[in-house]
Amino acid sequence: MTRLEKKISELDKTRIPVHVAMIMDGNGRWAKSHGFVRSDGHAEGVSTVHRVTKLSSDLGIKYLTLYAFSTENWHRPKEEVDTLMYLIGWAIERELPELLANNVKINLIGDIERIPEDARQRLFYARNATAHCTGLQLNMCLSYSSRWEITEAVRKIASQAALGKLNPEDISEETISDNLTTAGIPDPDLLIRTGGEYRISNYLLWQIAYSELYFTPALWPDFSDEDYLDAILDFQHRERRFGMTSDQVQNNI
Ligand code: IPE
Ligand code: IPE
Ligand code: MG
User: Fold this and answer.
1) Residues with CB in 5 Å of ion ligand 3
2) Of ligand 2's atoms, which has the minimum distance to the CA of residue 73?
3) Rounded Cα distance, 157 and 217, in Å
4) Which pLDDT score, from 0 to 100, does residue 253 have?
5) What residue's CA is closest to ligand 2, atom 9?
6) Disulfide: which of 16, 73, 133, 219 matches 30 by Cβ 3.0-4.6 Å?
7) Catalytic residues
8) Nearest ligand, CA of residue 144?
9) Of all protein residues, whose CA lies closest to atom 8 belonging to ligand 2?
10) Mean pLDDT over residues 90-108, rounded?
11) Which residue, 194, 189, 180, 190, is CA-closest to 141?
12) What is the pLDDT of residues 135-156, one digit of tens each?
């Protein structure tokens, strides 16, 4: 038995997270440590996306949400942004046959209109081609930030109210969830951030209210299947109390 197989055998198959979200951080530092340019780190990071998608699908995870490019990342040097956009388009096209073979459905989250035409068309093509898939749903967050998303949701809700279609008294947590880009998707059970930083960087602020957080120093290109399984095993050993007492949770009362 390999170490990977051993870790898989240790998993509680009845407690696999339904939704895993990831902040894929550390590509630039990985490149620097190898004497490469930052964009080489992003290119290397594509293979980690490939692996985590495959493993998530094999484990029966229903939703995998990846932070690929934030609203704030538009402020990076133009050359790096251009390379990232090119890589995103290229990678989605290259991965499409295997995504289809694994029954993976692509969903795009974020201000996709800001993505350059060429990459955007490839993303739309992959989304349409996988629309019928019923396995893992891969949510790619592109030009996404949580504050952008919440602002958009508030605008939509306010205009409904202004038109008289919604009574402000009737606005509930559900109204807000339903107006986010993640409408219909259960909140993440587990959020993993690679790259060693302990911050959220404007990601899914509303949705992670009760997610379990896991931070690893592994840089994204180095984040291995074993590292991913370690995160899930750690998650399985936690008690999610949702504000209740441990007794209540254990006795289901
Ligand atoms: C994450 O890696 C990829 C994106 C944010 C697009 P970084 O590029 O942020 O890598 P570091 O954090 O500089 O090492
Ligand atoms: C978060 O990483 C965004 C993505 C992974 C896409 P950053 O590298 O942009 O985050 P900060 O700037 O270190 O907070
Ligand atoms: Mg970073």
Assistant:
1) 25
2) 9
3) 39
4) 80
5) 73
6) 219
7) 25, 73
8) 2
9) 25
10) 98
11) 180
12) 999 999 999 999 999 999 999 9
Question: Nearest C-alpha to atom 13 of ligand 1 is from which residue?
Answer: 28
Q: Which residues lie with the beta carbon below 6 Å from any ligand 1 atom?
A: 24-29, 69, 73, 84, 195, 220
pLDDT at 4 (0 to 100): 93
Distance of CA 101 to the CA centre of its chain: 21
> Minimum-distance ligand to the CA of 140?
2
Residue in this structure with the two tokens 């989605």, named with its chain if needed: 92
User: Separation of 59 CA from ligand 1 center, angstroms?
Assistant: 27
CB-based contacts of 238, cutoff 8 Å, min separation 6: 212
> Whose C-alpha lies nearest to ligand 2, atom 14?
201
Query: Is the overall model pTM greater than 0.85, yes or no?
Result: yes
Tokens (6 digits) for 190 = 């587990």
Average pLDDT over all residues of the chain? 98
> Please, which residues have CB within 8 angstroms of residue 186's CB and are 6 or more apart in sequence?
18, 19, 63
CA of 40 to the centre of ligand 1 (A): 11
Taking the CA of 25 as reference, the closest ligand is 1
Angle between helices 225-236 and 3-10 (to 10 degrees): 20
pLDDT in tens, 176-218: 999 999 999 999 999 999 999 999 999 999 999 999 999 999 9
β-strands 212-215, 137-144: how paired?
unpaired
Pocket of ligand 2 (CB under 6 A): 23-25, 67-70, 73, 197, 199, 201
Alpha carbon distance 104, 138 (integer Å): 7
Q: Residue 90 has what pLDDT? A: 98
Is the pLDDT score of 115 beyond 90? Answer: yes
Question: If you measure from the C-alpha of residue 179 to the centroid of ligand 1, how many angstroms do you get, rounded to a whole number?
Answer: 29
